[in-house]
Amino acid sequence: MLTLLWFGQDLRLTDNPALAAAIARGGPITPVFVLDDLDAREWAPGGASLWWLHGSLRALDESLRQRGNALVLRRGPAEMVINQLLDETGADAVYWNRRYEPWAVARGERLKTALKERGIEVWSFNSALIQEPWTVSTQKGEPYRVFTPFWKALRATCVSEPAAAAARIPGPATALEREPLSSWALRPTAPDWAGGIQAMWTPGEAGAQARLEDFAAGAASDYRDKRNMPGVAGTSRLSPHLHFGEIGPRQIWHSITAQALANTGNPMPAGVETYLSEIGWREFSYHLLFHFPTLPEAPLRPEFARFPWEENAKGLAAWRRGLTGYPIVDAGMRELWNTGWMHNRVRMIVASFLIKDLLIDWRIGEKWFWDTLVDADLASNSASWQWVAGCGADAAPYFRVFNPSLQGAKFDPEGDYVRRWVPEIGKLPNTLVHSPWEARPLELADAGIRLDRTYPAPIVEHGAARQRALEAFSRIKKS
DNA sequence: TTTTGAGTTGTTCGA
DNA sequence: GTCGAACAACTCAAA
């Protein structure tokens, strides 16, 4: 009796239902992670995600070794690899935690059927969500398309207690052949562009726990007020840990609410409630992706299929590099490139700029984020880009166009954030640091700036760009 | 079945 | 300087 424990996006040992069930079953466990053929699939993980995956797998292997086991790494199509491993090991059961990407859902179902036909015991579990997409529905039994009623329904459900990790995870008597992690070359070497990512993040379950404890004890209670300030460490920064399942939403939920009650003795502080609703947004994104599997590719509002997106290679290149001439946009894009992460407020600003100021198809921005974010997540990324574009299920109205300099002045009033990432305009006073084009020649000279030499002049004039966007959006809704 | 109220995150304009 | 309305209708969810 041997159980194959197939890891996916659940790279942790605590609060891991598949692992707990495998231990409860008794007998040795072979934990395995399968690297699917990366070139064969659309939405295969991007560069930043692979960097993270390397660290997360190494951490997981380490934790397993401390418990008398080790992670088996194999590369290839997962269904084939699992079958091979069953042949090799004689395992009679396969356990895993479910995933919700359309291709993963299909793969899971195929595998379940095939394994059962082989006489293998198969169980899958929920590790990644508070409620799986099919457990929450409207009174008519349909999926939700609007966040608030979804959130009310989710909020009313019971959030189950996370389970502690087992002290020992018995392994098989004979060690299996394992591919060395280094052979997968998940991290860049020449050039190594990951220095800034490395400096900021600690992939793995321990890193996730440390981040959570820090947030629960500190910024969580101020979350409502500080979460929009990109120059302040007011957010949890748990997103990549959540994406890889190094921590689960139920753990976060219980930890945050318990800490809040201990601190105040009262019902939830507003900051904590606001944070929980962000967990709710993650759940809503998974709900949408599951029920509308074309979410990553096709606008949910069909009229957007004929939106007159523009080809704009120069604009796109400037956006990617952080050279648009709008400091808050450029700061965000540089933060992303350097750290693999961007503050959420700034994600909305840069997305609005790409879509509405440059009229570039949201899917191009979605792909760039997919490749550069360490927290790139199919559900959250797709749902959020559709939301900004106005083509999502519960989307921002099309006339909501972010004004980058206003947003900067409002949410980065001291200019801390833009000065960190766009140092070449750092000497401008706060009143001009979000709009250098408004500076008089003398003020520019004092700050050591020559527009279009040391820092770009705006690549589009926002007022005119906004008008252009509004006209384009009004055209698609007429017919 | 019909009705009603509501809908993450904004900006601009004019009084 | 401040404030409310307009920006557009439409669809969702529940009563």
CATH class of the largest domain: Mainly Alpha
Order of helices and strands: EHEHEHEHEHHHHHHHHHHHHHHHH
What is the number of helical segments per DSSP (H or I, 4+ residues)?
Answer: 20
* Ends apart, CA distance between termini: 64 Å
The structural class is mainly alpha
Helix content: 40-55%
CATH topology of the largest domain: DNA Cyclobutane Dipyrimidine Photolyase, subunit A, domain 3
Instruction: Give the overall shape, derived from the CA principal axes.
Output: globular
Task: Tell me about this structure.
By secondary structure, the protein is mainly alpha-helical. The chain folds into three domains: 3-127, HUPs (Rossmann fold), CATH 3.40.50.620; 129-159 and 205-291, Serine Threonine Protein Phosphatase 5, Tetratricopeptide repeat (Alpha Horseshoe); 302-474, Orthogonal Bundle (DNA Cyclobutane Dipyrimidine Photolyase, subunit A, domain 3), CATH 1.10.579.10. Helices cover 48% and strands 5% of the residues. The chain has a five-stranded parallel beta sheet, sandwiched between helices. Helix 15 (362-372) runs antiparallel to helix 16. The structure holds a DNA duplex (15 and 15 nucleotides).
